[in-house]
Amino acid sequence: MRLGAVETGGTKVVCLVGSGPDHIVAQTAIPTGEPVETLAQVLVFFQQEVASGGPLAAIGIASFGPLELRRSHPRYGFITTSPKPGWSYVDLVGPIRNTLGVPVGFDTDVNAAALSEGRWGSARGLDTFLYLTAGTGIGAGAVINGEVIHGLGHPEMGHVSVPHQPGDDFAGTCPFHGDCLEGMASGAAIAARWGCSAEQLDGEALLAATRLEAAYLAAGLRNIVYITAPQRVVIGGGVTGLPDLFPLLRASLTQTLAGYPNLVEHTAEEFIVPAELGPLAGPAGALILAHRTCARSPGCL
Amino acid sequence: MRLGAVETGGTKVVCLVGSGPDHIVAQTAIPTGEPVETLAQVLVFFQQEVASGGPLAAIGIASFGPLELRRSHPRYGFITTSPKPGWSYVDLVGPIRNTLGVPVGFDTDVNAAALSEGRWGSARGLDTFLYLTAGTGIGAGAVINGEVIHGLGHPEMGHVSVPHQPGDDFAGTCPFHGDCLEGMASGAAIAARWGCSAEQLDGEALLAATRLEAAYLAAGLRNIVYITAPQRVVIGGGVTGLPDLFPLLRASLTQTLAGYPNLVEHTAEEFIVPAELGPLAGPAGALILAHRTCARSPGCL
Questions:
Q1: Is the dihedral of CA B196, B199, B200, B201 positive or negative?
Q2: For residues A18 and B46, what is the distance between their CA atoms, to the nearest angstrom?
Q3: How far is B224 from chain A (nearest CA, A)?
Q4: ipTM of the complex
């Protein structure tokens, strides 16, 4: 099946045509500028692909949030109160559906990436698991009994509270909460704390930064693990490049769980694992969204 | 349909026969003593009910945890590492299924109560919501897309971390974590902090205790709300008897969410509501477990 995928990100919008991470027939990245111009370039990409390669059955959009996902809401398909300048109350689904005339699926970037790691990546075969990405920001998507969570909106897991590590008085960088998980452990937080990006750290500072990162990610994961009981935690994003982050993270999580509920699986190496799909997780997840919306649309499949 | 229900609790085991909270034909409460004697009394109750009123289609068990819920596990149907003396590694499902010869459903008390509030109580008509009970301990069950969460075990939401309120150096009462949500806000924590039970407090102490309780419950709910995006939060348990707890809790949650993700629904009175079913929530939920296991068992329905 020939599907389209859009992943909107803070710096670029990835568009592709295909049916899975191993079946991509066209791909482009558009810099994230003003919404109108950026979306116009997205439309041009797909119009050219349709003209040259034939029609698409459906398109999926995986976007940074917050998003309005309630189908009955007048702003369904919109980004809502985004901290990204100019991108609050931007309609993503409408222009794409109306201009290209195909069913459009829509979800958060992390929900899409979770679905994608579940189908093709590190969570294959599981039905209840977590995907967390720690890059400039922190977000996570949970798959519960095979489905992502859509309740009153969608999860915002980067904003859970985490206790400060002993002696750490860093105020955090979250514009809403200061020292939530994102405020303490995102790439932006590392940069604010150390005065340089994670990639530029070395020596003692790199060791100290990695230990702190592991401790704060573990503190956030403790809350997510106690609330969603995942079979596995898959972690992606730039901070996973910190050396030895994973063993430190496993040790920190074991410590903060403090022997409760005493599941040996929580301490196993296969409980916390790196993501497999890298930057393709989001766009490939958008292909799943496209496929699902097609399956729900009469005459599409 | 004639179903059986068992809710095991810290002080008593409630057993009933019926099909819903308004259709209970027999009920008893057995003091929670040693496991063997207690379970023997449960079996006698159901054997007498079968002899006098006819066979049961299935029985549901809603239990304090932690529980082994993985059907493929050799200890499926057991309580696992319970802090309750004598009740670790007790098989609940086996004796009841083998002695009474009916299909047996099994889940945590809070998962069962969540299902029950969803069918007959304060969460009717919703598919993604939370039930939290704050009594001697704190536990919560989430319904996500109509189903409770079963991953690697089940949620243990009472053990999420909560930041201390300014100036509060109370160490908490959780034997594992000290100052987790349960350690700071359970009935046991209130008793340890104030030297008397919540019901015995009055005057300034009652006001102060209620404000603290609202603040800590809100801190825990913030994490649960960011992780599960519930359409509603239903709260039961003894501490809901604290005067004006609900308005204070709504105000504290609004404060800790800090305007993110700016959903007006989070501040509405119908977002955080009292449970409707009271002590019947768990046993009535066990009837739902019984019905569901019957629906999965050939020849039962």
A1: positive
A2: 59
A3: 7
A4: 0.97
